[in-house]
Specification:
The chain is α+β, with helices and mostly antiparallel strands. It is built from seven helices and 42 strands. The protein has a six-stranded antiparallel beta sheet with strand order 7-6-5-4-10-11, with no helix packed on it. Strands 12, 15, 19, 20, 23 and 24 form a six-stranded mixed beta sheet that branches. Strands 27, 28, 30, 31, 32 and 35 form a six-stranded antiparallel beta sheet that branches. Helix 6 runs antiparallel to helix 7. The termini are far apart. InterPro entries: Cu2_ascorb_mOase-like_C (IPR014784), Cu2_ascorb_mOase_N (IPR000323), Cu2_ascorb_mOase_N_sf (IPR036939), Cu2_monoox_C (IPR024548), DBH-like (IPR000945), DOH_DOMON (IPR045266), DOMON_domain (IPR005018), PHM/PNGase_F_dom_sf (IPR008977). This is DOMON domain-containing protein. Belongs to the copper type II ascorbate-dependent monooxygenase family. One of its GO terms (molecular function) is copper ion binding.
């Protein structure tokens, strides 16, 4: 081997390790003419998509050269994850796509019903270095009607959690960095998107609502609060907010409560205090728990504060969990608000649903609360008016034993689609669930029924409602508009046969009254507490699933493609081309082997360098071949029909022409559910449990 060759190999190795990464961008490698919608899932991953004839095609652009790429819909992480995965078959030198499913944080398994097909695949280099892109397009029906329940439908005008991962070698654990998730709306309402596209975003101001520097006690559970002012020189709307996490291992969650009136709460502003059992303001305003990211208000409404509103002060409450008793830990977590005096059409509010009646027996695999009713007498007040109110998000909240949670929606004796659900609840993934379009409108005299399910495995005593991490909760904080300031909680007190239907301030006054019974009677007469029907019957929700597109051809769980191919049934290369490529590969291996042998003769101490050079040359040759194929089969030439024009680069692009979307069967019984003696009796209910617990306001 000549000295020039040796120098070239060393330089090549240096380039391999020193080249900088190239960030993924929308429409760099996929055309907006083929995929009119795109969103950056992370700095390294962009997802494009198009909807046509009842299918959605995802086109993924990942920085780097990878051997498998997966993307799908879940409840957060691998919880209930429905995945489309493209994999490189090293032996066959081909790529396949397959449909995978995972109910928990485990390795996904192949679905019993395969619904994914591979559209195109290409891996390419950038600027002759070894940092390139992996470009994968996969197609699936919007609704599959998977009889095993292993698929999630792509919902219309509903935000869903998208998860992604990629890796080297065979399909396996992706590691802590090659993964992520984001909130995406695939099928937005067309008329809404068109109008929103013409509205410019106002200049936003920022406001940090944070705990002043605080040393976390060594106690297992601490609730610390601070009272903070908000600007009151004008009326403002909060366009978005995001968490500021200062000491992640100790922060269990945090909330902001609104204080009513123009007077500040009792404790001095900006001075923290313990609030485990006593809150100075109790109207739930916003919250954060693990799994939540930046929250964006809907286009029509937002949380309000300032002049002309009842909110001029907020209480930030942080729940710290220090089970190890670590000393000397400081924190200053909280919220960052993005707000403007440019107001949206409506003020948005929050109403709390759920149950205080929690008594999880030790050791049981599954136990559910008595379904808790927000009755017609309360929704008649909350949704007063001809159009009712629009429900936006369900923020389902439980603690460590929680396994699933749902709020059911009944109108005129017929159950509608639920207000979203958490079928695979985990405390680390509690992002709000966007309420589906079919159940988004709440009308007067509708009924909402909330049920929480837990496991008692690992506990040696009964677990009840409480604020501590080892205790449990069952709350659904529902955002809606227009805001009704008179009602912030609608929770059934089962032992009294009534449900609350008032603000937290009024309910606190009732609890502290000298004569509680008289206060309850007065509240019932004023409509602040409403009777729960002794008997309540309705026809359960039974969606009829209609598959939106035909199943892939038998064996196509992987349509099989080579690098650079597009699924256009073009086989013009034929066997001769394959034989030529195989011969070229054999010649390449002989050349590589000769180079390695020559290096071994130069120095025995260069074993590690030789291995690197061998892998580098092999990868370079492979990428050169892939680049050649990519130039011939450019994914921009994929012939997918173009949908109506939208906002380029936005996850809210309109998607015309998609098939009608139906929710999948949620497994409800076909027998009626009814109340008897103030109990709910159905296949989904459990034994009657105690009612509201005591102590403080609604915590988490």
């Amino acid at each position: 081997m000549s000295i020039h060759t040796t120098v070239w190999l060393v330089a090549l190795t240096a380039i391999f390790f020193s080249s900088s990464c190239i960030s993924s961008q929308c429409f760099t490698n996929f055309s907006p003419a083929d995929y009119p919608s795109c969103i950056l899932l992370s700095p390294n991953v962009s997802m494009h998509w198009v909807v046509q004839n009842g299918t959605i095609t995802w086109a993924i652009d990942v920085d780097g050269v990878w051997d498998w790429v997966g993307v799908g819909i879940s409840e957060g992480g691998m919880l209930g994850a429905d995945l489309a995965v493209a994999l490189h078959d090293f032996d066959a030198h081909r790529w396949t796509a397959a449909d995978y499913w995972s109910a928990d944080f485990v390795t996904p398994q192949l679905d019993s019903q395969q619904d994914v097909s591979l559209v195109s695949i290409s891996r390419q280099m950038h600027n002759n270095n070894f940092h390139g892109s992996t470009l994968v397009a996969m197609r699936r029906p919007l609704v599959t009607c998977d009889s095993a329940g292993q698929d999630r439908p792509v919902l219309n005008d509903t935000r869903q959690t998208v998860v992604f991962a990629y890796g080297i070698g065979s399909f396996s654990y992706h590691g802590p960095t090659n993964r992520g998730q984001a909130e995406v709306t695939f099928l937005p309402n067309n008329s809404f998107s068109a109008s929103a596209a013409n509205v410019s975003q106002p200049a936003l101001q920022t406001l940090d609502i944070r705990m002043p520097p605080f040393t976390v006690p060594t106690d297992p559970t601490t609730y610390q609060c601070v009272n903070l002012p908000v600007p009151a020189d004008a009326k403002y709307h909060i366009y978005s907010y995001e968490p500021i996490i200062d000491n992640g291992p100790l922060v269990h969650h945090f909330l902001a409560y609104a204080c009513r009136g123009s007077s500040p709460p009792p404790t001095q502003l900006n001075q923290s205090y313990n609030c485990l059992r006593d809150m100075e303001c109790e109207d739930f305003y916003m919250g954060w728990a693990p799994g939540m990211y930046k929250y964006e208000a809907p286009a029509e409404a937002a949380l309000a504060f300032g002049n002309g509103t009842s909110t001029r002060y907020l209480v930030l409450q942080i729940h710290y969990t220090n089970l190890e008793g670590v000393a000397g830990q400081n924190d200053s977590s909280g919220f960052r608000l993005y707000y403007s005096s440019t107001l949206k059409h409506y003020d948005m509010g929050v109403v709390t649903l759920g149950s205080y009646g929690i008594e999880v027996p030790p050791g049981v695999s599954s136990w559910s609360t008595q379904p808790n009713m927000c009755p017609p007498g309360c929704t008649a007040q909350l949704a007063a008016g001809s159009g009712g109110v629009v429900l936006v998000d369900s923020f389902y909240h439980m603690h460590q034993l929680g396994r699933s949670m749902v709020t059911r929606h009944v109108r005129d004796g017929v159950e509608l689609q639920p207000l979203g659900s958490r079928d695979f609840f985990a405390f680390d993934y509690q992002s709000p669930v966007n309420i589906p379009t079919g159940t988004r409108q709440l009308l007067p005299n509708d009924t909402l029924i909330t049920t929480c399910t837990y496991t008692g495995v690992g506990r040696t005593s009964t677990t009840r409602f409480g604020l501590a991490s080892y205790e449990e909760m069952c709350f659904n904080f529902v955002t809606y508009y227009p805001y009704n300031p008179n009602i912030t909680e609608c929770v059934e007190a089962t032992e009294k046969g009534v449900a609350t239907c008032a603000s937290s301030e009024v309910l606190e006054q009732i609890e502290r009254a000298d004569d509680t019974q008289a206060a309850v009677q007065a509240a019932v007469q004023s409509g602040q507490m409403v009777p729960v029907p002794a008997k309540f019957t309705f026809r359960p929700y039974q969606p009829t699933c209609v598959r939106s597109a035909p199943k892939p051809a038998s064996g196509s769980s992987g349509s099989s493609l080579s690098d650079g191919d597009v699924d256009d049934d073009d086989d013009e290369d034929g066997d001769a081309k394959e034989e030529e490529e195989e011969e070229e590969e054999r010649r390449h291996k002989r050349n590589v082997g000769g180079a390695v042998a020559a290096i071994l003769l130069v120095t025995a101490a260069g074993a590690v360098a030789i291995f690197i050079v061998y892998r580098t040359m092999k990868k370079k040759k492979q990428l050169e071949e892939e680049q050649h194929l990519f130039e011939k089969y450019n994914p921009n030439s994929i012939l997918v029909p173009v949908l109506g024009a939208g906002v380029v680069g936005s996850s809210s692009d309109p998607a015309n022409g998609g098939g009608k979307v139906f929710g999948k069967d949620n497994g409800y019984s076909d027998t009626d559910t009814y109340y008897v003696d103030k109990k709910i009796s159905s296949t989904t209910s459990s034994e009657l449990v105690a009612g509201r617990g005591g102590g403080g306001g609604v915590g988490m």
